Structure formats: C-alpha cells, structure tokens
Amino acid sequence: MAQHDKPYVSSKFAQLEQLLPTPNNYRTGSGAPGHEYWQQKADYKIKVALDEKKHILTGAETITYYNYSPDNLKYLWVQIDQNRFKKGSDAFETRNTRLNDGPNFGMINLVVGQASEWGCKIKSVKDKSGKPMKYVINKTMMRIDLPQPLKAKGGNMTFSIEWEHKIVDAKKTNSRSGYEYFPKDGNYLYEIAQWFPRMCVYDDVNGWQHKQFLGNGEFALTFGDYEVAITAPADHIVGATGELQNAKKVLTSDQLNRLKKAASATSPVLIVDQKEVETKEKTKASGTKTWVFKAKNVRDFAWASSRKFIWDAMKVKVGNNDIWAMSYYPKEGNPLWGKYSTQVVAHTLRTYSKYTFDYPYPVAVSVHGPIFGMEYPMICFNGGRPRADGTVPARTRKAMISVIIHEVGHNYFPMIVNSDERQWTWMDEGLNSFLQFLSEKEIPLQSWAKADYPKTYPHRRGPAKNIVRYMRTDPTKIVPIMTNSESIPQFGNNAYGKPATALNILREVVMGKELFDHAFKTYSQRWYFKHPKPADFFRTMEDASGVDLDWFWRGWFYSTLPVDMSIDNVKAFAFSESGKTVEAPAGGLKHKAFANKKFNGLRERLSKGFGLRLTDKEMAMLKPGKYYYSVKVKNIGGNIMPLFIQANFVDGSKQLVKVPAEIFRKSPNQVYKGLIFDKPVKSFQLDPNEMTADIDTKNNTFPRAKKGSKFKELKEKKEKSNK
C-alpha cells in the first residue's frame, strides 16, 4: 500500500516536537543559542616541512585546548584523518568492489588500498613540560588520557604532538588533498589538507564527536587561532589559510611591488607571472624557505605549494571589509584561470555576504590543482582545466566557475556557521548549493561574464525541475535528507541537490523571498562562529518568519515522498435564469446551471433560519456572468505542496491562482479548490512554471490531453517549419 493510499491521519501537518530535541539553556525553542550556550576552543602553533623528493610531511604542533563546557574532561579526542588512507582502514575495507567482465576502476581502488604505505605516524605526545602522555589510536581517532581532569568552565591545557606522513597521490585515492605530477616538466603541485592531528568537537549535543572518518562525512571542527610555519622548496610559492606574516623574506622585491599594486587594483594583478613560472620549472632551485601564516578564529588550516604556481590578486570591498581575493594556478590552467578565477572569488564574496553576513576574514583564495572541489577556511581547491591546446569547452568553463563559487561559498557554511559535517552533510552542502544557485543567477550581470553569459547562466542545482529525475526514484531505494553522511546513497542528489531545491522552493513558492531572506539571514547571523544543529535551522526559519513550516521539513527533509499532484476532475457551474446548462463558447468546459430562482429560495431560508444576509457585492457574484469551478486535486506522490492552478480561459487569456499548502491540512490525500471567474474556462493546469518539482506533469491538466495529440502537435509544427 502506497503512503498516499493509507487511511487518513493528520501526520503531515503534525508538529515536529517529537522529532526535535527539547529546548534548553544551550539551544532555545526559537532556534537561537541559549543564554548558557558554550563551545570549546583550540589554538595551534605548527611547524611543518615538505620533502618534495619523498612526498613526506614532517610536523610538530603545540595545541592549547580550552574547556568552556560544564564538564570536567578526563581525556581528549584528536582526529588523525590521514589514517583513512592506511592499509586496512575502514575506508578501504568497507568499500564495495564489484568486478564484472574485466579490469575496472574498482579494481584499481582495491589494489591501491592493499598496497597503501600511507597513514599518519605519531612520533610523540607530550605535555607542556615535555613529559610523555598516554594515548590510544583508534583508526582515525586518537584518545589522549589526562593525568588529571581538565576543569570545566575555563580550564585549559597545552600539549604537543610530533608526526609525519606520506602525502597521497590525489589521482589514485580520490581524496580531498594530495599531490599532482606533471610529466612534461617533471614538477609537482601539492594541495595539503587534513594533514595535522586536530581536536575533535566536544559539544552540548553529542559530547565528543569522534565518528570515524570514512570519506563522505567530512569534518566537525573547533574554532581557534593558528600560527603555521611551512618550510618548502625555495622556489615554491605557498598559499594558505590566513595572512602571510613574512612576505619580505619569501617574496622578491618585484613580487612585493606587484602585491602592493594589487591592493588598490579593480582587476586581478599578477604577483607571479607565467614567464617566471616557466623558468622555475626548468631550474628547480635547491634549498628551502619558510612561509609563516596566521589565522584567527578558524576551524581548520589548509595550504598549497608548488613552483608551478602563477599567482594573481586583487582586493574586494564587502561592507566595511577590504578582502584579498587571490588565485594560484599552474600554466596548464590558462587562459581560463587567469581570466576568471579571482573575479569569481570576488563575485562570490559579494553575493553570499548579501544573503548572510559580511565576509569577516582578510583573505579568500582559489587554488587549481588535482582536487576538483574542496573547501577550507580562506582557501579552496578547484578544478576545471583547459585542453592541452588551450581551448576551453563551454562545459569546462561553466564547471570551473560553479565549483569556485561553491567552494569559496563554503567559507560561510560550514567554516563560519560551523555545522557538523560528519553527521549532517546537507547543513553545509545543501545550504551552500542553494546560495551557489542565487550567486549564479547574478553572473550575467557581471562585466567579466557578459561575453560568455549575456543573458543566463546554466544551473545544475536549485531549479525545481532539475530534481525531478531524482524524485522519481522509488522512495524505498533512497533515504531522507535527515540521514547520517556516511549512509546516503545517491550522495550528490540527496545532500546537495534536494536540500538546495527544497530551500529554493521554500523561498520562491512557500514563504516568499522577503520572509525567507530575513529568516535565512537571521539563522546565519545567530550561528555566526558557532555550532548549529538541524533543529536550530528549522526553528530559526519559523521563528524569524512567522510561518509554520513543520509540514515542509517533514515532507522534504524527513521523508522520501515525491510531489505528484493530479487534477482528477473539474466541476463547472454558472447561474442561469432559465436553469438550463450554460454552454461556454469555442470549446470551453460545460457548465451546469444554478437557477437563480432556486438560489433565492435557499437564501431566504438561510436568512430566516440562521440570520444569513449577503451584501449586494456578494449577491452580484451569484448572478449570470460569473463562473464557478470545483477543481479536484489528488495528492498522488504524498508530499504536500502549495498548488499553482492556472485557468486557461476561452478568450485565450490566463490566470494563475496560488493555493497555500494548508488546504491539505485536514485532507492530505485530495482536496477540492473552489474558484470564481468573470469568464468561462477552457482548461486548467497545475504548476505550469514547474516550481514544485512535480514528477508527473501529464496528470496536471484538465481536460486531459488526448492520447497522441502532443505528437500530432509536434509533427504539425515540424512540417510547418520545414515549409
């Protein structure tokens, strides 16, 4: 029995209290942080060296951890993400490998996992005085046992870790970081992330978030301040999270002058140009340089290094903040990257800030290398490479622009609005994909994009019609959005596409742009530099808009039911002095007659029995010249949505009527919508503009199109065009 055929229950409009956590002093019923909300802090001082010959990172870090929780902590949990790539890891061992008729990519993955020499080697863990501390490594997590509990509400401690690991080959591992080798010139490009032992999150909802890192579920991280010294080959250019502290030591005088010029430029300025890069590719200097970066109030730190990097930059004004927009890319990325990357970074900062908050960090960097799309505070790794001859297919250009918007946009979600990606992918990917769609809509307005996108930009995720194919999937073979990140089939559709579409529908169809934008900005600013959970988002969107959305969250986020509405029947009526059937001209619907004489008798009885009196205006609507319709809409898919009913009149004009979703509140399976018009209707159509992700539009019209009539219409159109 399908969901929509079950006996009626009012569950679709039931409130979500039974599903959402009980509000408390930490997280309120309004969705705002409570008056006793707390979160931890972890500061890092790190020294790391890159060995280009052996592809090894060697590092030492000092962590100062602050316990603002109400709990004394007897141990600390630290993430060791590189152990995901260790031989025998859960990520390798739990991967499904299907071997069919011959070798395939699954076989390569199997071989890589079995032969892996990767993984993190912990050399030491010591307290502030240098005394060894007891620790236990559990796959991608390490527990550090404390000699005495770390005191609640303000206690802090400092300890150090030394480690090393081999850098993974990004193309072999399908990872979020690693190196790329360029055989033509024999050089490497490094994108380094998840590279150092990092504190797990301890919060009021989960305690320690130490779910193992398997690959899909990304990261739960604690805010802190970073000082990182990166020692790399002397001719490398290094880009990283944060601001460069020793530019005079690592840059040439020419590069410093160009950087100064870029600070006041309105278009990107080359700090390192292609000619310099091509010289370095051949000479490969010996020796090293150490680049020092600082970053405040970030949840992570990533960096990139290569002698192949061209570097351009400009500053962009966002609110009262002057922000560096920068790009690093090898010559293989030109001409595409030099033309677009930094401009797209600047565009993203402007549009996202409009819908959330002014970008607070001093830098936003886009790096081109082996990772097609991955995000970190102030820096992201992006793909989109021209062909070897320098030509750029339109598809490549579009993919590159979209991925930069998406990854730079992640600075807002989850780098600043710091959700738990290990648990809820949609809270960062879904929200970010939605904002990406809004940002993409403004691309044709930008001067740098007009030549390629004079009117529109092709969108992948966001428009309702783009999710229809996924929503046609058998509901028993997919999972709700509210599913843990590691347990999602069709990951991209579930965690990116469906929530982005849901939010777009919520904005354009359910709430309206004004109410939605205010509520979304309220959520963004309430949880700015904090750790929100799904309930905080759901509650804030309702609290700030005054719109009851529990039915929407239930349908789109807690179920797999699709939208499929059908006009099953229409009854048409008109008033007639004679009481005979009213025929609409030129093929309109047949209208049954209401005889005025009979209605007047009803009105008199109601007036005497119930005191019902109709005004002259109301009476005017009950006379010849008015047309009444009862449109029967059946909810076949099971997911509740507002109705958009278009009346196509006999005279060729149209009128679109929006009906709130609450029409289904007492009858979720089918409803009857009454309509009154001044002229007769020829036909009705549901959702003519494809705004609700209805999976079957063939049942959206009444009368139904005759079988074969669409084919005949297309055939006649083709024959006419041929003539």
UniProtKB/TrEMBL annotation:
Entry-linked Gene3D superfamilies: Neutral Protease Domain 2 (1.10.390.10)
The answer to whether keyword Protease applies is yes
Gene Ontology molecular-function annotations:
metalloaminopeptidase activity; peptide binding; zinc ion binding
| Composition-biased stretches (Basic and acidic residues) | 710-723
Origin organism is Microscilla marina ATCC 23134
The residues forming a coiled coil are none
**What's in the keyword line of the UniProt record?**
Aminopeptidase, Hydrolase, Protease
Entry-linked Pfam families = Peptidase_M1
Please cite one Gene Ontology biological process associated with this protein: peptide catabolic process
Cellular component terms (Gene Ontology)? cytoplasm; extracellular space; membrane
Q: What InterPro entries does this protein map onto?
A: Peptidase_M1_aminopeptidases, Peptidase_M1_dom, Peptidase_M4/M1_CTD_sf
Renumbered to this chain, the signal peptide range is none
Name of the protein described by the UniProt record: Zn-dependent aminopeptidase
- Where is the organism placed in the taxonomic lineage, from the top? Bacteria, Pseudomonadati, Bacteroidota, Cytophagia, Cytophagales
Residue ranges of the region described as Disordered: 693-723
Please state every residue range assigned to the domain named Peptidase M1 membrane alanine aminopeptidase.
346-556
TM stretches of this protein: none
